[in-house]
Amino acid sequence: MTQPTLQEQLFDLILAQYPRRADAVEDLCHVLNLAKDPIYRRLRGDTFLSPQELTTLALRYRISLDRLVSGQSDNVVFQFNAFSRKLSDFTDYLDGFVTDFEQIRRMPNAHLHYASVEVPVFTYSLFPELMSFKLYIWGRTTWDFEYLRQRPFDFDLVTQPVIRMSKTVLQHYISLDSTELWSVQLVDNTLAQIEYHTYSGGFRNPGDAVVLCEKVADWVAHMKACAAAGRKFGFGDKPENGQGILNLYHNEMVYTNITGLVTSDAGRLVYSAFCNPNFLLSTDPKLCDYTESWFGHVLAKSTPISQSAEKSRDWFFRELTRKIERVKQRIQLHIDENA
Fold first, then answer.
1. Whole-angstrom distance, CA of residue 235 vs CA of residue 226
2. Is the pLDDT of residue 168 over 70?
């Protein structure tokens, strides 16, 4: 049997990302700035792709030419979002999520598997106060935005256009079916950041730290409602109007970084946090196989906490609430003592 050429393999992977061949042709015309007839000649193999066209398509569709050439190599090629765009403000980061989610929405029967020991980043947007605080933290640390270095946090720091973009990210997440693996450590990182900034004078108004703790508690209550319904919905919405399916599991034996796997009829994607909140992205089949197998093994040994698993769900979310209350009490005591 003849080995497929590099061009054939590349087009097979591109076409698999579309529900209809005609849709792929339309986009390829735009990407390569060609009419339909030259595109069809390239798809049939009558015309070879130029090196520049190969590069353009590989970058546009996030396909590793190294992987196609090396075949069974153990090398795995990743795309790193911090390399592809230099962040200068919060919208640059959020725009990356919007772009990725729009690609995922085009993938038929897409499903997200997500494992994390931190609050899923998309869900901070349920409460603008939480999203603003997390963007502030990342802006001061990972992204090192100069204008934040000496600026204490307040709720007016993040503009409404940024909040609206974060809501777009949230809506994409809500509409996507997902199976998620959580730990009771989920809120620890955010609570530690709130408490540290309280003691270090990082709030313009120290009372905002208490507000943030209350918003984390609201987040817990809302996600418990989503878990009970087995559906994702926005804050203030009714469970019966939920959109994406939420299958939620609890496991304390596996400590993992933030790992996401998108499966679909058109292909798979693996996301892995690196220098949080940045992430690595790969479509390598071997890595996708490994990640899918890992999720299968771990979920089989985990406790369901969504839908009918009321007893386990009550325990899990009660533990989160207790953590929040303890931190809130310490913060309030500190504020009172230094008033």
1. 10
2. yes
pLDDT digits (tens, 9 = 90+) for 300-314: 999 999 999 999 999
- Residue 158 buriedness (CB in 10 A; 0-12 / 13-18 / 19+): buried
Domain boundaries, the chain: 6-70, 79-337
List the strands of the sheet with 303-304, edge to edge.
79-80, 279-282, 267-273, 259-264, 111-115, 178-182, 246-250, 303-304
Across 70-88, b (16+ Cβ under 10 Å) vs e yields: eeeeeeebbeebbeeeebe
Three-state SS at 264:
strand
- Under the banding of pLDDT at 50, 70 and 90, the label for residue 70 is low
Distance CA 333, CA 163 (A): 31
> Which candidate, 74, 78, 51, 46, places its Cα nearest to that of 62?
78
- The closest of 236, 187, 210, 208 to 132, measured between CA atoms, is 208
Q: How many Å apart are CA 210 and CA 205, to the nearest integer?
A: 10
Whole-prediction pTM:
0.81
Rg (CA), the chain: 22
Q: What pLDDT, on a 0 to 100 scale, did the predictor assign at position 321? A: 97
Tally of CB atoms within 10 A around 238? 10
For residue 274, pLDDT over 80 is answered with yes
d(CA 105, CA 108) in angstroms, rounded, equals 7
Q: What is the DSSP string of 149-177?
A: TTPPB-TTSS-HHHHHHHHHHHHHHHTS-
Local confidence band at 216 (pLDDT 50, 70, 90 cut-offs): very high
